[in-house]
Inverse folding.
C-alpha cells in the first residue's frame, strides 16, 4: 500500500523565530498522527533550526528548491550537497519557479538527477495553466512535463509527484476531487508507459492547489490521490494538523474497506 504523504510548503514566509514558533505549535499533535508521512518545507534559512526541533519525531524535513550543481560560482544558490546534510526531501519544478524564475522542463530534469545523486527525494511538481486547462490541453502539457523532466532517469520509488494545476495555486479555486483524480490517474498511466507498471503502481502522487482542512477529504478519499502539497494552510498549525489528521483517518478507513 502507498503510504500517504502531506507536505507543507511554507514558501517565502516566516522568519527563523516565526518558524520555531510554528514548529512548536504543531510538533506534538503531528507526531501523534501515524500512517501518514509528514514533511515540512520551510525557507532555507530555517532548515538547521527546524531540523533540530524535529529530532526524535517522525516528521520529515524538505527544502523548497535547489540548484543542480554541487558547488561553484553560483552566487545565491543552494546545492544538493548542502541540502543532503539537512533534509530528506526537496520540492522541484514548482509552478512559481517555472513562472517567476523561468525554469524549464530541461532544468527541472537536471535538478531531479542532481537530487537523486545526492540522496535527496524530489517532490516533483507538474500542472497546467488555466488557458491550457480550458482549451483541453491538460494531458498534452502533463505528458510533456513528465517526458522531459524524467528523461534519462532510472525508474525509482524515491520521487513523489505533485499535480498542481497552476490555476488553483494560491487562488482559493481548488480543482474538485474527480478532476484531480482523473488527471492523477493519467499521470500514473503515463509513468507506467515511461517506466513500468510496478513503479507507477507504487509511486505516490499528490494533489496541490488551494488545499485546506475544509476540502482535503474530497481529495484523499479517492484512491488515486496519495496526499497533498499544502501551501498557505501549512502556515497555520491547527489547519495543517487537521489536514494530516483527516488524511490518516480517511486513508485508514479506505484501506480497511478494500
Amino acid at each position: 500500500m502507498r503510504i500517504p504523504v502531506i507536505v507543507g510548503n511554507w514558501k517565502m514566509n516566516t522568519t527563523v523565530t516565526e518558524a520555531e514558533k510554528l514548529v512548536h505549535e504543531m510538533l506534538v499533535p503531528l507526531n501523534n498522527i501515524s500512517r501518514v508521512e509528514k514533511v515540512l518545507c520551510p525557507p532555507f534559512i530555517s532548515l538547521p533550526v527546524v531540523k533540530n526541533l524535529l529530532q526524535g519525531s517522525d516528521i520529515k524535513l524538505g527544502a523548497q528548491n535547489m540548484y543542480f550543481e554541487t558547488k561553484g560560482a553560483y552566487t545565491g544558490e543552494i546545492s544538493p550537497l548542502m541540502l543532503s546534510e539537512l533534509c530528506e526531501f526537496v520540492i522541484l519544478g514548482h509552478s512559481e519557479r517555472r513562472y517567476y524564475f523561468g525554469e524549464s522542463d530541461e532544468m527541472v530534469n537536471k535538478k531531479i538527477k542532481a537530487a537523486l545523486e545526492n540522496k535527496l527525494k524530489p517532490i516533483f511538481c507538474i500542472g497546467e495553466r488555466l488557458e491550457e486547462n480550458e482549451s483541453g490541453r491538460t494531458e498534452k502539457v502533463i505528458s510533456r512535463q513528465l517526458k522531459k523532466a524524467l528523461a534519462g532517469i532510472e525508474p525509482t520509488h524515491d520521487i513523489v509527484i505533485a499535480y498542481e494545476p497552476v490555476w488553483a495555486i494560491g487562488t482559493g479555486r481548488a480543482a474538485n476531487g474527480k478532476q484531480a483524480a482523473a488527471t492523477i490517474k493519467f499521470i500514473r498511466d503515463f509513468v507506467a508507459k515511461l517506466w513500468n507498471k510496478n513503479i507507477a503502481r507504487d509511486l505516490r502522487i499528490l494533489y496541490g492547489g488551494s488545499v485546506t482542512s475544509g476540502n482535503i477529504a474530497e481529495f484523499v478519499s479517492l484512491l488515486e490521490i496519495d496526499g497533498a502539497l499544502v501551501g498557505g494552510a501549512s502556515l497555520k498549525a491547527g489547519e495543517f494538523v487537521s489536514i494530516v489528521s483527516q488524511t490518516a483517518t480517511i486513508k485508514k478507513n479506505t484501506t480497511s474497506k478494500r
